[in-house]
């Protein structure tokens, strides 16, 4: 069994749980590899109708593990491969045939917020707090959010959220139309599960076609956006000043 990501299937629902609670499920190479394997398994399994995404412990995902940042920038080719693995998660969540329900609680930061934006439905706990720290660190966003977030909350708010890295609450998400529903913390998993079950019992063909239809118009631009994000993120990762900013943030 993978340790950084848990995977289970029940009643047509594949539950994928980020499982580095001691680091608030922060992203590292092992988590990316395990997450992609879980997504590949869910997307290939004909018995899976819906994917439910959540995080173990006190948070959904605190973004990139800054304690491992120095290891991510030792070799430009490895850095590019690491960023591409992040983008592959978005492909597995967005460019598939199965609806994804996010059960989001605690912190959803950076890559964790990007994966939240990649979900088809977001059930968000009252405790949720989210922001993009990338620009302030001299790096860049990934996950196709330069395209998806504009569609979800509008150009002006997307620009503000990504550029300034301000912190938002669950009530802000509701006002922005970023979440499907805001619930009490103890209800986030049951309500997300109930929603996933509602989707899982629907006829498979129309659900698949709906996801494809809703993605048809932005798919090409999503790939283009992620290509631009990858290049910008690579430059940011390899900028020596970014490493200095990360060290300052950790101190």
From TrEMBL:
Signal peptide location: none
SUPFAM superfamilies, per the entry: ClpP/crotonase
Top-tier EC class: lyase
Alphabetized Pfam families for the sequence: ECH_1
EC number(s) given by UniProt: 4.2.1.17
Keywords attached to this entry: Lyase
Gene Ontology MF annotations: enoyl-CoA hydratase activity
Entry-linked PANTHER family: ENOYL-COA HYDRATASE, IP11341P-RELATED
Family named by the database record: Belongs to the enoyl-CoA hydratase/isomerase family.
Protein name as catalogued: Enoyl-CoA hydratase
Organism encoding this protein: hydrothermal vent metagenome
């Amino acid at each position: 069994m993978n340790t950084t990501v848990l995977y289970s299937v029940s009643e047509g629902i594949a539950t994928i749980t980020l499982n580095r609670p001691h680091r608030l499920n922060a992203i590292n190479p092992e988590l990316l590899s395990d997450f992609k394997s879980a997504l590949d398994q869910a997307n290939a399994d004909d018995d899976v109708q819906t994917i439910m995404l959540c995080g173990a412990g006190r948070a959904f995902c605190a973004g990139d593990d800054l304690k491992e940042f120095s290891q991510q920038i030792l070799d430009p080719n490895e850095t590019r491969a690491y960023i591409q693995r992040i983008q592959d998660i978005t492909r597995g969540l967005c460019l598939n045939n199965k609806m994804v329900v996010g059960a989001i609680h605690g912190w959803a930061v950076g890559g964790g917020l990007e994966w939240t934006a990649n979900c088809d439905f977001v059930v968000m706990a009252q405790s949720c707090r989210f922001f993009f720290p990338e620009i302030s660190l001299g790096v860049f966003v990934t996950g196709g959010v330069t395209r998806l977030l504009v569609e979800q909350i509008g150009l002006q708010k997307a620009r503000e959220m990504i550029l300034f890295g301000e912190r938002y609450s669950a009530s802000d998400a509701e006002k922005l139309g970023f979440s499907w529903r805001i619930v009490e913390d103890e209800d986030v998993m049951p309500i997300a599960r109930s929603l996933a079950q509602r989707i899982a019992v629907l006829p498979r063909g129309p659900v698949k076609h709906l996801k494809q239809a809703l993605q048809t118009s932005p798919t090409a631009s999503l790939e283009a956006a992620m290509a631009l994000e990858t290049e910008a993120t690579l430059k940011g990762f390899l900028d020596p000043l970014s490493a200095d900013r990360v060290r300052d943030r950790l101190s």
